[in-house]
Amino acid sequence: MNLERAALMLMPMHLHVDAAGRVLSAGSTLQRMVGPVRDFDAAFEPVGPVAGASLAQLAAAERVFLRSRADPGQVLRGRAIALADGGLVFNLGLGIGLVEAIRNHELTDRDFAPSDLAMEFLFLHEANNAMMDELSQANLRLEEARRRAEAQAFTDPLTGLSNRRGLQLSFEALRQGTLHAAPGHFALVAMDLDRFKELNDSRGHAVGDAMLCEVAARLRAITRSCDTIARTGGDEFVLLLPGISDPAALEQLGRRIVRRIEAPARIAGAVSRISASLGVAISSRYARIDWSRMESDADAALYRAKREGQGLLRIAPGDHGEAGLAGGRGNGGV
User: Fold this and answer.
1) Pairwise CA distance, residues 239 & 258, whole Å
2) Is 111 noted as a catalytic residue in this protein?
3) What pLDDT, in 10s, does the model give residues 249-267?
4) pLDDT at position 137, please?
5) Is 0.85 surpassed by the pTM of this model?
6) Which of 20, 230, 273, 327 has its Cβ near the most Cβ atoms within 10 Å?
7) Which segment of 21-25, 53-57, 73-77, 295-299 scores lowest on mean pLDDT?
8) Of the residues 235, 297, 299, 319, which is catalytic?
9) Out of the domains of life, which is the source (predicted)?
10) 164-329 CATH choice from 3.40.50.300, 3.30.70.270, 3.30.460.10, 3.30.360.10
């Protein structure tokens, strides 16, 4: 075997052409990718910086880029060396198409020259993809954990309602809405359960907790998805009702809430009954909407309702004085 033949055998991606462009030999890997090659122009198209170049011009180029006519998506890159007889020897590589070519043609380490780092690059590519996949999964897990932690931070663990922190966030969002040119007003409803302490003391905390969960479910059923329902204490609840600022509408809703809360509940094999009192503060009644002021006024209206009986609703006057007081009774209640 002469030196020329030995050198070509060591280059599985070589292409040897004569001055007329006839292919004299092609490396085994190159043939596997582009099939039998007999004529340079029939098999390859110079592209990129060498687009339209002749064989002589390819020999003078720093880099050559050849698109396979059999597989236009495959572009090979390399270097061409001119021979004394006018022919050329190309030593080609896969470039950025390495990974796709290896997969499409099922190439292995044996298809590359021993000095070629193609498989090492493939390994690094696959390792990088695996690492990126793992990082992506880890980020998803972290994001899910963050969402769970955030939900837990703003959620009452017993009832699944908002807690005080979640309630205040919702209040702030509603407060911002009242600052617009066309303000969207809302109602803050403080609700306290009547006869709950007697139930808790007589039947135990487990039954009391079950009743609180039942109340939460009933409130969810009677309110809208845009409303915020929060448990702020033992048997204390607060509702934020966007878009509702009419006292008559609030009294009607209050009657529905009280009727729903007063419905008998079967817990641990026995029927229990409680009621609820409500105090309301309406944002449109305040020149300056403030959480502490509205909560305090709603609580004061609630305590007035409890003093006057069970199942009552009272509306705080806000900045409107005594003219803003309202109330009613339904089901003997609101």
Assistant:
1) 14
2) no
3) 999 999 999 999 999 999 9
4) 85
5) no
6) 230
7) 73-77
8) 235
9) Bacteria
10) 3.30.70.270
